[in-house]
Specification:
With about 230 residues, the chain is an alpha/beta fold. An eight-stranded mixed beta sheet has the order 1-4-7-10-13-16-18-19, with no helix packed on it. It has a six-stranded parallel beta sheet with strand order 2-5-8-11-14-17, with no helix packed on it. It has a five-stranded parallel beta sheet with strand order 3-6-9-12-15, with no helix packed on it. The protein is elongated and about 70 Å long.
Amino acid sequence: MSHEEDADLPKHLRRKKLGAKPLIHETAVVRHSTFGKFCKVGARTTIIESEVGDYSYAVNDAEIVYTTIGKFVSIGPLVGLNPANHPYERASQSHFTYKSWQYFEDVDDEAELFDDRRSARVTIGHDAWVGRAAIVLPGRTVGIGSIVAAGAVVTKDVAPYTIVGGNPAREIRPRFAPDIATRLLELKWWEWSHRDLKRALGDFRSLSVEAFLGKYEAEAEANRIIDPLL
């Protein structure tokens, strides 16, 4: 769709440029969270006490709570990151026992329970993709460059550059061979400047991962020779 065609759409459907300020849909709920540059939050998404890195986005109806999200992360619709657990070991697991202010006069919420949940943060690594309706349980880490398949329930940490799926999520296969994954982790392209990303855009699009690594590893080595402090 061209920018001219965009102009014929209702305002809420038009594409918008991203920049230093996050693009947050008017129906999204964001509380006590921070965002990097070029971030986007879709309709009816909730983000609470979380950190979202540069170039990351969450599309519609995601729920993200007490989560640290790296750069270039793609979060699909209906994703749940760090969903709440109920205190099922008690005589009652109902809200009234810990969200008590809603039910009783002069009774506060149970601060300790919420503090425990805050301490079990979810971490999503750079360039990870969390597919539609996937869930990542409290305290779990999804590694750099990994893929969580649609509908998966992540109950254990996911290694970098690994594809997982199912309930509970299990490894389907590595995204790349181990040596390629290691080289990508060492290259750390996600730390490049916006200018360098644009310069390399054609290579991101057209080169194989092996050719991409070969070109930019050589460039990084040449820079180190020129300036040994790099």
